[in-house]
Every structure is written in structure tokens, then in C-alpha cells.
Amino acid sequence: MTSNITNEAIRAFETLKKGGTILYPTDTIWGIGCDAKNEKAINKIYQIKQRPESKSLIILLNNKESLSKYVEKVPLIALDLMDQIDKPLTIIYPNAKNLPSCLLTEGTIAIRITKNEFCSKLIQLLDSPLVSTSANTSGDMPPLIFKQVSNYIKNKVDYTVNLYQNEIKEVKASTIIRFINDFEFEVIRD
Question: CATH number of the domain at 2-189, please?
């Protein structure tokens, strides 16, 4: 399976490097993604999802060490929370940097450190964060399995990752927290 993951990561990487979008499995649900530093690709995702740009997107990183590239200051408690919470954790950080403004909401950025092998490999190849948003149009229910992804979405993305399409796994939405300052945060979704 690891060679399949590597091969699919390479195919997805080739699409992303050309400014394309992908439909891919994440550590939560099926998502639409692109290179988080490519503003045109990000705008294409907003168009595919028919989503207002005022609603921000999240990015995936493959390790905690990369956070300092995209956030002015990472609260120490955030690192502790990442180690303590078992399910996927998305954290909204203030004072984002080195990312296109279309990804930011009032200077904040939502980031999840992925534990998904495919996503980690792709981020490593891309050497850039990966945009991750549910594979549905705005207002529709997010697909829990690949078969629930609409044909509209499948036809709009530039590449569909050929992994886990027939698998049904226990799907957990990520916990989302927002930091107010270095020591205070609020739970947006548990």
C-alpha cells in the first residue's frame, strides 16, 4: 500500500504544481485541496464550492515544526493540546504569515497537523501547506465516503486521488479551537 500512496502523492503533486486542484482522502473526510500558496488555485476552490470568500479554508501541515513558518507565535499550550487530543485537531491561530490573504480571516489561519500518510507525503513533496475543505458545495452535507462525493465536484477538480475510494472508515470531524491569546482559547467545535 505504501507504494500506492507514494505513486498517488506524486500524481497529486504534479497536478498541484501546475496550479490544479485535487479531490483527496484526509484524516477526516474527503476533501478538495490545492497548494496553499497558489492564490489562483485557492480561488478555483472557492468557485467549485460556490463558497463566499469570507468563509475561510483550513490548511494542513505534516509536522508541528512547520507552524512557525505560517504563524507569528505558536502558543505553547497549542503544542500540548496537539499531543493530548486523540482526534484530528484544527487550531485557528492569530497573526498568520507567508500565506495569501484569500486564506486569512482577519489575519487568522486554521491549521491542522495531519496524521494521514497520503497527506503527509504530499505536503512533503509540495514543500508547502495543503488547502483542505470538505468535498461539497457550500450548504450541502459533506461527504463521509467517496461514493457520496457529487459528480459535480468530481468533474470540477483537476485530479481525483485513487486511494481509499471503496473504504468506509469511522469518520470524525476535527475538533476546532481558536486562540484568543497565548493562554486562552475557545472551543468552536468539539
Answer: 3.90.870.10
